[in-house]
Design a protein that fits this description.
By secondary structure, the chain is mainly α. Strands 1-2 form a two-stranded antiparallel ribbon. The protein starts with a helix and ends in a 15-residue tail after the last helix. The model has no long low-confidence stretch (mean pLDDT 85).
Length: 101
Amino acid sequence: MSKLLGVAGVVAVLLLAMTFAAMNGDQRVTLDLGWVTLYRVPVTFVAFGGLFFGMLVMLLAGLNSDLRVRRILRQRLADEDREERGRVDVNQQDLFTAEEE
């Protein structure tokens, strides 16, 4: 069910983006970026460019915390492995040896 909702969400966003592009294809705006001013830029480029750069900023912002979580999990796994190796029974014997085959 959740997979179907995910696909439906992606299709809905795609349809909205296509509708926006079709309805505003001939609209032009002036884009002032601070250091340069661009004239007669299609509004669809501005909208999709803003969406792209917003996703890029979120990726870069989340990258640091993702790496921190991965480092914590890797350290926890190493600690658990070290703890389990300390509990190994030195008198343990195999029930079946390679010679019996």
